[in-house]
Amino acid sequence: MKKLYAVIGLGRFGGSICKELSKEGKEVLAIDMDEDKVNEYKEIATHAVIADSTDELALKELGFRNIDHVIVAIGDNIHASILTTLILGEFGVRKITVKAQNNYHEKILEKIGADEVVHPERDMGRRIAHSIISSNVLDYLELSDEYSVVEIKAGEKLSDKTLIELDIRKKFGCNVVAIKRGKDINVSPMPNEQIIMNDILIIIGSDKDISRFQKALVNEED
Ligand code: ATP
């Protein structure tokens, strides 16, 4: 059976999730209490309906009990976001992803049963900050408060050296899990793998260790 998705709140974040899921051919029910927003998504989502997601009966009538994955993308109204998450939890929705507005909101959402809490502005801000500090940091993904994965473009300090020569694991405590070269990706590279200029290294480690590695071997912006 086809997986059913619902997006509640069609602001920039919810709207872009809705567009992307629809583009990928997924069945999406789009909800917003704003009529103009709903009209905007009539041609995009499978169904677009005006509804207040804090109205339990309305959600029940829309068949929310049968939705596999709901994305709650209500922005400023934290109260509505929490109440909606509670209702969806009681319905037994299999997966609930909620956009958090701040750290307190995030904590509450985790406590009341959101399966996934996302914080797009904060996360994107962090990623951009890392690429501003060093233009060689292409991407930065936080795994936990302590651990991250970074994508680093090899500059002069890394080029023409093998992983064993660089001894990244021993010296910096982080691991090169893959090397991307053009369209090719070498997962779990061997110690004798030689890095060439502009290779992209995918590195996993603690933030502290990654930072030490960057300071030593990644060129900083002027
Ligand atoms: P962003 O653009 O960053 O995603 P935003 O500022 O557009 O966020 P909001 O406008 O606060 O976020 O909320 C997103 C949408 O959620 C709005 O279109 C709003 O009408 C809708 N919304 C808010 N509360 C409810 C609710 N209880 N039920 C349904 N839709 C809601």
TrEMBL record:
Gene Ontology terms, MF aspect: monoatomic cation transmembrane transporter activity
Domain (RCK C-terminal) ranges: 135-219
SUPFAM superfamilies xref list: NAD(P)-binding Rossmann-fold domains (SSF51735), TrkA C-terminal domain-like (SSF116726)
Domain annotation RCK N-terminal: ranges: 2-119
An example Gene Ontology biological process: potassium ion transport
Record protein name field: Trk system potassium uptake protein TrkA
